[in-house]
Specification:
Radius of gyration: 22 Å
Oligomer: single chain
Structural class: mainly alpha
Distance between the termini: 56 Å
Number of strands: 0
Strand content: under 5%
CATH topology of the largest domain: 434 Repressor (Amino-terminal Domain)
Helix content: 55-70%
Shape: elongated
Largest sheet: none
CATH superfamily of the largest domain: lambda repressor-like DNA-binding domains
CATH architecture of the largest domain: Orthogonal Bundle
Number of helices: 8
CATH class of the largest domain: Mainly Alpha
Length: about 140
């Protein structure tokens, strides 16, 4: 929406804002939606660069061509797991590239932060149905 349209809507009494404001999303929810949208676009770009049809990619991930079309068209029912599976299937080096990206994200984490996270994992209550005497 350009500035003139925005001003015209505001003069008519409309409130102009973001989707996140309208749906009252948290920043984490907005980021998740943005990530899913970007992953859908990435699937299409990698598939096309690899000269794969949607049917060929579907065969690689054990799914169907319409499901790949849903991944690429940002269908909200598509899981992150399926999106990632399609990315890895369309480009063999994708898993190495993603691992390198994750290492970059992990680099700033302080030793104290990771020790605290380990302490939280060790002190969690035992899962239901488990022997409480052997749970750590």
């Amino acid at each position: 929406m350009n500035k003139a349209q925005r001003e015209r809507f505001q003069r008519a009494g409309w409130k102009v804002g973001t989707v996140g404001e309208f749906l009252e999303l948290t920043p984490a929810e907005e980021d998740l939606i943005e990530t899913k949208l970007r992953l859908g676009g990435l699937v299409r770009a990698l598939r096309e660069r690899s000269h794969l049809s949607q049917a060929a990619l579907a065969k690689r991930i054990g799914s169907s061509q319409p499901r790949v079309a849903k991944i690429e068209s940002h269908d909200p029912e598509v899981s992150l797991d399926l999106q990632m599976k399609a990315i890895f299937a369309s480009r063999p080096s994708a898993s190495r590239e993603l691992a390198a990206l994750i290492r970059k994200w992990e680099a700033p984490i302080s030793a104290r932060g990771t020790a605290h996270a380990r302490r939280l994992v060790k002190t969690r209550p035992p899962l239901p149905g488990r022997n409480t005497k052997t749970a750590a």
